[in-house]
């Protein structure tokens, strides 16, 4: 049931994999101690890239969709994790309100919401959808392929709470990334749990802050199991707010790209890696795989900083705040198509994952683009769990434990990040 | 993957099943609230019988073996539940000591221990086996079929703790039912967790106390979802200590059997059930399916109370304390052989189950006997989880949610039972 993966893993990654498998009890204990001090986001998905010599998270999504891409076999695991989460948050709860994305939902998004509803219903809650889209003025139902339907009702605000007519939730689960900013209807809810909290929305969140937290986590984890943190940490730099049409903006970007490429080149040399380093330039805010640019040489950005010339387009660099991240190749292949693992978590638990596969994209390109397909990571003789004593790399799915560890490191980083931006904690500081 | 079950479920059970499926959020919330007040045993297995018209636990094992009979697909669920348990008990823990049964282990028992070790190792602990068998004076290794081995080391007592040489566990997991009484080596351990606690051992435990607690749970649960508790509760009576060779012993047994059969007959009449009631007489202590006697009429016990006559054997009635329990038919069949579901739990979570199948036993007999086979309940399109709106009984595995509910009701009863016999709580009372 697990897709056959054509991987060509050589060099340090096998050593890293072995190190992680051997250290399982140490690693799990470390996570237990982290979760004594920090609160994981209620749910999270992490895109991972496995370059063979290096394994890194490249994107951490705090409003994951794509739940329908998980293998149905994984559902009991998600339900159990959901139960654990509810027990901690509000065991007396009867109702959960899910706030979906604004706008007309795609059939994929509806399938994802249906799965999410199923998970939390089976975990023991009545689950309904409350839209905060101003266009949703009364209940709208959408048919699902299996004959079921999903109904969006307009979320209603009372003085202290948000709910639906005759439906008062204990927890409000945001599946809406709040790109347009925190809407008034969700502000100052002191009687209900809003998860993830408002500061997880993309109007507040910055990728650079997440990866700064991740760097800290990676350093500590590297020390724990005795590996160079670089093997699991993508280097990055950020420029703050830049205007690529201004000389200062172009210059900042070029010098950062150049400095980062130099750092990566040094690391490649240290490990004897015969690949050409590259960086990825992307918006520091925002969730979709839009406006992502792969750069192998700062010279490619030579035109930046000048006014656009008629008839000569500038490279498509994102505007505003920009993060420059070390590019991590993906060496995973499914039937020759480039693949990257995506790991899903509920509370502190890994509950599944899938491969994002894109036949038309290269190993150094984002796969989060139209045309991507999804291959669930399914159970096959429990091989997604580590077996002590089994040679690392001997079986592809063994690798999933390692992906689960990297996913959870990003989850720890997300918990640091949300603490660092918590307005209540900030007020105390 | 799920075995095809020839079930002939008609009458109230389908209504009960529908009631349970519809009430999922109410039921799960009820369990959440129970677990706020009570602590579940670390692990537990429950034998369940499904008569079609009635569904009951018949045996609750606090030292479950048979872990190897669970489907490997269920392993991640067990690992996750194990993680949740460790987090609560001692998150800082590195080591877990498992105390196996005394005596030479069978290959089945070794396979079960290997699985248990795998579960807790993957949950993040170093796991070793400490034998309390006085015959184990130094480490003994047993080979497993897959080339691995299991080593029993003699458990060592220091003044305050139990462990092995160079192995100091935070928690000691008993997989030994302590039939011979609590051994000194495990007494007065105030610095370590001993799970299940000493009073769960068969020298203290009584089935009658468990079913008394279960009756209370069943009554409250029946009220919660609006069903007659009898539909999930096996009636019982107990005689205390009897000697079946004495007239008083025989008389006590006969009168209790007769009274219980009358009660059951009345219930059968109420529900229009055309079956012959029967009761099961078994020892109130002890774990194995030994000395279990099926009785359909008190007259079968006419000879009891007299001294044995040469050449004429008495019916094989257990000596000592005896429990008389309503017999629950099993209507589950796998390939024509009588089957009963067994549900496994870790902490508060159902982590798997299997069918105990016995080709040579009747539907009113114990299947826990030599010759039993085990068929894992495996995942098949997540059908072991309830689907709202799907007709009850339409798919066999749908039934597994219901079995998980009954198993957890017995788990709640076990937590009451362990509280009632807790020497520290008794001292406070």
From TrEMBL, chains A, B:
It is an enzyme of class 6 (ligase). Keywords: Ligase. Gene3D superfamilies: Glutamate-cysteine ligase, N-terminal domain. The lineage of its organism: Bacteria, Pseudomonadati, Pseudomonadota, Betaproteobacteria, Burkholderiales. It comes from Ottowia flava. Its EC number is 6.3.2.2. The gene is gshA. InterPro entries: GshA, GshA_N. It holds the Pfam family GshA. This is Glutamate--cysteine ligase.
């Amino acid at each position: 049931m697990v897709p056959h993966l054509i991987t060509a893993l050589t060099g340090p990654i096998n050593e890293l994999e072995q190190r992680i498998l051997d250290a399982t009890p140490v690693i799990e204990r470390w996570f237990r101690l982290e979760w004594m001090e920090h609160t994981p986001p209620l749910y999270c998905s992490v895109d991972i890239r496995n370059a063979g010599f290096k394994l890194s998270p490249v994107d951490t999504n705090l409003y994951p969709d794509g739940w329908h891409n998980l293998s149905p076999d994984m559902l009991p695991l998600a339900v159990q994790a959901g139960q654990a989460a509810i027990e901690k948050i509000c065991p007396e709860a009867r109702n959960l309100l899910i706030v979906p994305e604004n706008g007309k939902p795609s059939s994929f998004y509806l399938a994802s919401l249906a799965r999410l509803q199923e998970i939390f219903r089976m975990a023991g809650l009545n689950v309904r959808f409350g839209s905060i889209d101003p266009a949703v003025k009364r209940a709208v139902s959408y048919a699902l392929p299996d004959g079921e339907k999903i109904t969006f009702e307009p979320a209603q605000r009372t003085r202290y709470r948000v709910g639906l007519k005759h439906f008062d939730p204990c927890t409000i689960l945001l599946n809406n990334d709040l790109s347009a900013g925190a809407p008034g209807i969700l502000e100052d809810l002191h009687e209900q749990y809003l998860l993830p909290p408002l500061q997880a929305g993309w109007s507040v969140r910055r990728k650079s802050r997440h990866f700064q937290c991740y760097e800290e986590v990676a350093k500590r984890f590297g020390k724990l199991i005795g590996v160079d943190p670089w093997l699991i940490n993508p280097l990055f730099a950020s420029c703050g707010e830049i205007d690529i049409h201004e000389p200062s903006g172009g210059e900042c970007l070029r010098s950062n790209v150049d400095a980062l490429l130099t750092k990566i080149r040094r690391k490649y040399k240290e490990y004897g890696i015969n690949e050409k380093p590259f960086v990825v330039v992307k918006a520091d805010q925002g969730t979709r795989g839009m406006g992502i640019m792969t750069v192998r040489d700062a010279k490619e950005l030579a035109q930046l900083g000048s006014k656009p010339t008629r008839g000569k387009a500038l490279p498509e660099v994102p505007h505003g705040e920009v993060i420059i991240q070390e590019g991590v190749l993906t060496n995973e292949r499914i039937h020759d198509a480039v693949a990257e693992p995506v790991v899903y978590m509920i509370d502190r638990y890994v509950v599944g994952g899938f491969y994002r596969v894109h036949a038309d994209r290269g190993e150094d390109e984002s796969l989060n683009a139209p045309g991507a397909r999804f291959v669930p990571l399914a159970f096959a003789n429990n091989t997604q769990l580590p077996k002590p004593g089994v040679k690392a790399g001997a079986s592809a799915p063994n690798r999933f434990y390692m992906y689960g560890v990297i996913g959870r490191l990003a989850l720890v980083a997300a918990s640091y990040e949300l603490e660092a931006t918590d307005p209540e904690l900030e007020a105390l500081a």
